[in-house]
Amino acid sequence: MPKIVKIFLFAILLxxxxxxQNTGFGSLASDRTxxxxxxxxxxxxxxxxxxxxxxDGVQIIQxxxxxxxxxxxxxxxxxxxxxxxxxxxxxxLKSDQDIARADKAIYSLTDNSISLTGxxxxxxxxxxxxxDQILINTKTGMTQLLGSVKTVISxxxx
Length: 158
Hints:
Elements: H1 3-22, H2 28-31, E1 36-39, E2 42-46, E3 51-62, E4 65-76, E5 82-95, E6 98-108, E7 113-124, E8 127-137, E9 143-146, E10 150-153
Antiparallel strand pairs: 1-3, 2-3, 3-4, 4-5, 5-6, 6-7, 7-8, 8-9, 8-10
């Protein structure tokens, strides 16, 4: 394959990756003002330590965004304001058509961020991107993929 063709294909790949990452993650930015609903098979709440733990079949729903996991620990402030959510095992974050998967997730409401680590994968349309870590800004939806980033883009069917 001629060098110019390789450079052209690489430029298309980079522009496609940049587009996928800069369009934001689903409806996350607009959903952040919606109420948050927690569902699970079991819940323990420790008011003294401002800590709630959810086990098995956990779903956290905010607008059109759904975080699923097997275990979640939610930390509240002394005024009962949700500050941080730690999720483990079979993490899946869906927002509109975008999907992120990982082994662990940290949702910091105070920092407006979601960090997904361990077998992190982002699926946006025909793009499937794997990385060591996915960082999502919940205010803007801006997505960053860090460490060992591998992108697979399916050919367009048009």
